[in-house]
Amino acid sequence: MESEKIWFNGKLVPWNDAKIHVLSHVVHYGSSVFEGVRCYNTRKGPAVFRLQDHINRLFDSAKIYRMDIPYTREELCAASLETIRVNKLKECYIRPVVFRGYGSRGVNPLDCPVDSVIAVWEWGQYLGPEALEKGVSVCTASWNRVAPNTLPFLAKAGGKYLNSQLVKMEAKLNGYDEGIVLGTDGMVSEGSGENIFAIKNEVIYTPSSHFSILPGITRHTVITLAEELGMRVERRAIPREFLYIADEVFFTGTAAEITPVRAIDLIPIGSGKCGPVTRRLQDAFFKVVNAEVEDRRGWLTVV
Ligand code: PPE
């Protein structure tokens, strides 16, 4: 999982030398914003999926936290590609992270430098080796997502993942692969690191963007592909029990891709296997990311 070099403030440094001071602001206060992007070994060579969209979201996250990234979007896109190239990777996960570094002490971040890093590594199936094929068993977390106007949910920020960590630990320690989080209103929000979809009577449902979700780029991709296949997609409030009686449920995310959910709180979903609509969407998704169909939307950047 380690690669050779990490891009650190404009320089490529050996993996083990990409270090920061223990009194960096981010260590104490979670002040980072980050992205997760995937590069696929396509028929046209290694290509990054929706790189510009991810870098745009990184800048949005930084803006919310008043962080000035000292690079342009184009520079960070180019740096991502360069980091893949120097590490000679064909298929990998890309992790750009921007954080408040070593400067002053105390909560006030404004006097700390803003550091930028891009790391890449090979990363297989996020929720286990057979997750995409067989699906995962998940629980509803006892923790809720953060309430509106507490921690911004539109920012993909490090500190927000303390909430995700509570959800993930609870799930894993109880023998589940992942946890589903409800918002403080009791409605379904998302997984600890994935968006969620449910299918009932051929209609696809997903929580709309005001249910404390990160508006995922994979979520957007899946909605686009589903509509293109003539399926109806509804973004709305989803009560927890709707998932139990759905025909199919799946997660989406850069890391998780399209992962079927086979059981929730030990209740089998549909047939308890990957359902036909999920399989169809997986097929459409992997054709797009692997450049097996024409890239009409310019979603792939060849490395
Ligand atoms: N919700 C959350 C909370 C989330 O972390 C992710 C991505 C998504 C939704 C889906 O977003 P998108 O990747 O744009 O489709 N989670 C990233 C981090 C995973 C990790 O363990 O770190 C990811 O999938 O890269």
At CATH level 3, the topology of the largest domain is D-amino Acid Aminotransferase, Chain A, domain 2
Weakly predicted, low-confidence segments: none
Instruction: Decide which structural class fits the backbone.
Output: alpha+beta
Query: Count of helical segments?
Result: 8
Helix content: 25-40%
Residue-averaged pLDDT: 97
User: Which term fits the overall shape?
Assistant: globular
Give an overview in words.
With 303 residues, this protein is α+β, with helices and mostly antiparallel strands. The chain has 2 domains: 5-121, 2-Layer Sandwich (D-amino Acid Aminotransferase, Chain A, domain 1); 131-289, D-amino Acid Aminotransferase, subunit A, domain 2 (D-amino Acid Aminotransferase, Chain A, domain 2), CATH 3.20.10. 27% of the residues lie in helices and 30% in strands. The protein is built from 8 helices and 17 strands. The chain has helices spanning 25-29, 51-64, 73-86, 131-134, 161-173, 217-228, 240-244, 276-289, and strands at residues 5-8, 11-14, 32-34, 37-42, 45-49, 92-100, 114-121, 136-144, 178-182, 188-191, 195-200, 203-207, 232-236, 248-253, 257-264, 267-268, 300-302. The strands form 2 sheets. Strands 8, 9, 10, 11, 12, 13, 14, 15 and 16 form a 9-stranded mixed beta sheet that branches. Strands 1, 2, 3, 4, 5, 6, 7 and 17 form an 8-stranded antiparallel beta sheet that branches. The relative contact order is 0.16.
